[in-house]
Amino acid sequence: MRTDSARGIDGISPQELKMMPPLAISHLMHIMHSYADGFPIWLMWTKTCPVPKKAGVISAAQVRPISVMALLYRLWSKVQCRHVLLTILSQLPHSITGFLPGRGPYDAVYEMQWMLEQAHEYGPAQSGI
Hints:
By secondary structure, the protein is mostly helical. Helix content is about 45%, strand content about 10%.
């Protein structure tokens, strides 16, 4: 996780997690895995803070709410999401790009550029978006 990520309701910072010894991380993983029926209520609480869009006197329309969940939950969900994406990656059509390992927007743009260069060199003409 980014080191400047906000602390959530659990009060843990990314720096503190990074300093934990491997055995403590292993225990933490087992604790998180033991929640077979869902996480405890306190771990699902969220801090919501109003952040002004600009400096000075503001109205309610010029404020955006930022909600911060517990860092442990955010880390757990990041790992789970990555696992799911890696599992289904081979089953998704190649045309689906973005937020997938090896299929980001740059990959799609470079592939489109390659297709256009091939069409320009060898034909037939290509069109569309």
